[in-house]
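This follows on from our talk about sequence and fold. Please put the record directly below this note.
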Amino acid sequence: MEEHSNIALVPVDHDLDVSSVDEVRRTLDALIDGGCRRIVLNLSGMSFVDSAGMALIFREVRRMRQAGGLVSITNASDRVLRSLRIARLVDFAPVSGCGERPRVQELDPGVLPEWRSTLSIDPTDLAGSRRRVEKMLARLGLAADASFDLALAVGEAMGNAVDHTDGHCALVTVARYPDRAVIEVTDCGCGYELEPGSELPEVSDSGERGRGIRLMRLLADAVTIARKPSGRGTVVRIVKLLA
């Protein structure tokens, strides 16, 4: 299990049935009771879910929503996905199957944003800066779950901008295009670059950054990380499709 800030990625690498629900319940209850407000259940290793497993998922989704958070399911096999649809779980939580991630086309450089807004990150009040960004994201018209995920992804990028630099020139720019939202978080640090889709480094000095990037990739439709085209620093671009 990976836990970062108030987000946890929980792999379920076995069938979820009457013999295994107690273990999964203890894990999820501990996260929710401990203040985690975003749990992603990765079902890539699960091939079957029975009524006990289904009841557990419904219970944890309900508990998390009562706490103001979100549980979602990703990488469900075709068989498990069909079971979740029959049980109507897809009406209560975001659910995606294996290989369902949308492919994000390059933005036509001739397309102008419908609107764009930029604000500076206050490194002495990161929480206040996140709240200001969340108000900007609310203008995008996303569904509540998608907006929640996008805010978390942008919050991760903002945290990196402050953590890996002094944060005093970090900016967040939100732009709405006809088919997507593009959020750029920039800083004035030494610069960092990662090729799209490349494996993340696991060395000790970048482990925390690696976990944050994995979560951003999970929460958004596309994430690119590159050095600024001019000057010093990094540009993290986060894309969320609107369709």
